[in-house]
Every structure is written in C-alpha cells, then in structure tokens.
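Record format v2
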Amino acid sequence: MKNKSLVSINDYTKEEYIEILDLAEKFEDNPVQNLLKGKVVATLFFEPSTRTRLSFESAVSRLGGHIIGFSDTGTSSVTKGETLYDTIKIVSNYCDLIVMRHPLEGSARFASEITDIPIINAGDGANQHPTQTLLDLYSIRKTQGTLDDLNIFMVGDLKYGRTVHSLLMAMSQFKTSFNFISPDELKMPEEYKLFLENIGIKYYEHKDFTDIVSKADIMYMTRVQKERFSDPIEYERTKNAYVLKNELLSGTKKNLKVLHPLPRVSEIEQEVDKSPKAYYFTQALNGVFIRQAIITSILDLK
Ligand code: CP
C-alpha cells in the first residue's frame, strides 16, 4: 500500500482489506492523533459530495494534517479550460496525497499515471468508489462479526451505482451470495455478472424482493443516480422503484442490517431510521476511521 494509489478496489488484496479494517478499528478507539503533522492532503472534487469529502477532511484534521483543494470546480481554473492533466501536475507540487472525485470513468487511473503522488479515487463516474467499499466492509464485519458466507441484497440502481460495483468485487472474495434487485433498466452490468460466474460465485436477479427478504444478512440500498441518466423519462420511470418501509423489515433475520452509501432520496422512508436494523448513519461515521487507515497506510505513517 505504501505510496500506491487506490484507484480500484482490485488494487488491494483480500489481506490488505483486512489490514485496513483492523487499523480502522484502532482509529475508532483513538481517532485524534498527530500522525499527519506537516502533511498536506488535496481534496479535488469535480463532482458534488458531502460524506466522502468531509469524512476525508475530518480524518486528516483529526490526525493533525492540512487540507487544500476545491469542492466546486467553479472556484478553480477548470472553468478557464485547464485540463485534468495540468490540474493534477500542478496540485502534485503542493501536497503529499490527492483525493479526487470526477464524473468520468477512468479519470482516477489517468491521474495516477501522470503523477508520482498517490491518488485516492473518491468516485469516478459509474465505475468505482473503493474507499466507500472499505467502509462498507468495515460496517459489514462490525455488524455481522464476519465477512464470510453472507447473503448480500443489492437494491436499486445497480447499473450506474459505483458503490455496488466496488462492493461486489470486494465481497466476491468472501464466499458471498448475491441477490440483485432492480428494475430491468438498472440491472447489474453484464461485466460484473460475468466476473462472478468466472469465479463460481452465485447471484440471483429479481425485480421484487418481498418474498425473499427473509434470507438477507445485508440489505444494501442505493439511490437511483439521476445525474447519470441521459434520458430524464427513464429516470422518472425508475426513481421510485423501491421504497423501504418498516413493514418490509418485520419478517427479516435478526442480524439483518440496512446499509446505504447515502445520500438517500426516497428509497428509505424516514421511519426506518429508528429501526435497530438501520445502520446507514453509523456506516457514514465509519468512513472517518477507514479513511484515516487508508491515508496513514499509503503515507506509511501507521
Ligand atoms: N457515499 C458517498 O459517496 O456520499 P457523497 O456523495 O456525499 O460523498
């Protein structure tokens, strides 16, 4: 991990996931330390974010580091036509690590190839969101006591949802069975299903999950990603495909936890927030400890 970019969840091995999760546990016990004294982390967000950017910034601040960057390209020279290539070249002179979110798939890999500074992918289009996946793994292990032999239900926008793509790749290493619940228009892309088939992992596809929800260990809800649709009519048709209510949770397993990378729009009713099965707000909190673990591992400051 030392000095290596984290662009795809596949950049880390299963053993490295566990190493990060174990380290995050230590940060959860002791989140305020001075490990990043004198270090500068740049957060370059070419797309909106609340959790990812602020939890990275919180993670760095609590470890005594400094943050530079932008959360809105309107305040940067991108508006004057500066390329991503030039932006990365320049920002690399000012920091030790770059955290970048960008709407284009492959942009984080591109950035990692033009600088010696490590790049952390904070989401590239519909492709990957590896730090979200590591906090999802942390949340799953914390609530289930294991990452092995779990039945994961992924619900909603499985086509454009980068979080489910990264999570599928990571959980496939832990004897997981998957249930994909989505409208036809938003099914899990073929490449991910083919990946599972090639390594002998079972998955099932459904349009509705009322009859099978009792089998779930993790229900991973997702937002229909309005910003990725080229056809607004298709978005309108699918946006309310699934709305989770307490009623649906009544016959579920005791250990079931509802996760969601957030933000939510309408896919989880607010009444669910009070359910002991709702875990999404704590999941977002876990992001701080995981990001502390990722940054200190990459900068070799553990
Ligand atoms: N989960 C997540 O990526 O949230 P933000 O878009 O608010 O960063």
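The mean pLDDT is 95.
The radius of gyration is 19 Å.
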